[in-house]
Amino acid sequence: MNPQFKKGVLELVVLESVRKRDMYGYELVEEVSKVIDVNEGTIYPLLKRMTNERYFETYLRESTEGPPRKYYHLTAAGVLYRDSLEKDWNEFQERVCTFLREHAD
């Protein structure tokens, strides 16, 4: 997939994943990777920035497989931002699809 396409929808996919249920970082990498090929080096800085922007709250939860895990929870601001991104994405992809249909040979 084109890296610019990926960059454009990554935040939306991350927000949508956490909207469904709270997740810890590596779990989120696995979930997002079902749609977009990403790695931890891409997701963790994004999570940090979006937490600083107050789209996520974090908390620790004990793990049976090692140290406690940091979970991400979508805030009300995060829900509003996700909704805004989804609206923008739908408008954008519809315009592109319409353009491509109109210019098809």
Automatic annotation (TrEMBL):
<dbReference type="InterPro" id="IPR052509">
    <property type="entry name" value="Metal_resp_DNA-bind_regulator"/>
</dbReference>
<dbReference type="Pfam" id="PF03551">
    <property type="entry name" value="PadR"/>
</dbReference>
<feature type="domain" description="Transcription regulator PadR N-terminal">
    <location>
        <begin position="14"/>
        <end position="78"/>
    </location>
</feature>
<dbReference type="InterPro" id="IPR036388">
    <property type="entry name" value="WH-like_DNA-bd_sf"/>
</dbReference>
<dbReference type="InterPro" id="IPR036390">
    <property type="entry name" value="WH_DNA-bd_sf"/>
</dbReference>
<dbReference type="InterPro" id="IPR005149">
    <property type="entry name" value="Tscrpt_reg_PadR_N"/>
</dbReference>
<protein>
    <submittedName>
        <fullName>PadR family transcriptional regulator</fullName>
    </submittedName>
</protein>
